[in-house]
Write a structure and sequence with these properties.
Blueprint: H1 2-56, H2 58-65, H3 74-94, H4 99-121, H5 141-175
Length: 176
């Protein structure tokens, strides 16, 4: 009788352990979703306001863009491409089915902006005025670089988590 009691206790422990694992998994899932949502809100706000700023103050943006150390042939293209990509990323991030693409585009943009801010900070091209618009005009290049780096490093895990969630969803649909 004593021997069989141990098995019952052990089975109870195993069930409790499984329940704890499920609870931990649900908590982790919730944390991932909160992290992704926080990153989405940050990126949507950031890209929405910078993109709109470039659209509504297009002449000022083009003027600032011409002060950048970029090939002149790229200026007209970039003056329309950058706000379109920023606002396009916002739109994609707002649609759950294509959110992964929006996060990816935002991550690519933030990576490019971070690299550019770093190059401006180390003055590889000499002094360059910021063409970022109202949101960042008061920041130094060092502050701008650190801000962009922080946003990029915050966005990268969100993209990865969203990718893994989409992969899990795909696998579940495929099993059905």
């Amino acid at each position: 009788m004593e021997h069989s009691q141990k098995y019952i206790e052990h089975d109870g422990d195993a069930a409790a352990s499984t329940g704890t694992k499920k609870t931990r998994g649900a908590k982790w899932q919730s944390c991932r979703e909160i992290y992704i949502l926080t990153a989405l809100v940050l990126l949507i706000l950031l890209l929405f306001f910078t993109g709109l700023g470039k659209v509504f103050n297009h002449a000022a943006f083009v003027s600032q863009l011409h002060k950048q150390p970029l090939p002149h042939w790229s200026m007209p293209l970039l003056s329309y491409l950058l706000p379109t990509l920023e606002l396009g990323a916002v739109l994609l991030m707002c649609i759950p089915q294509v959110r992964i693409w929006g996060l990816g585009l935002a991550l690519v943009l933030m990576t490019a902006y971070t690299i550019y801010a770093y190059l401006a900070y180390i003055e590889i091209y000499g002094y360059v005025p910021c063409a970022c618009g109202k949101v960042f005009e008061k920041m130094s290049w060092k502050q701008h670089f650190l801000f962009n780096l922080a946003v990029t490093l915050f966005a990268a895990p969100a993209w990865l988590m969203e990718y893994k969630l989409k992969l899990m969803e795909y696998k579940l649909k495929k099993q059905k």
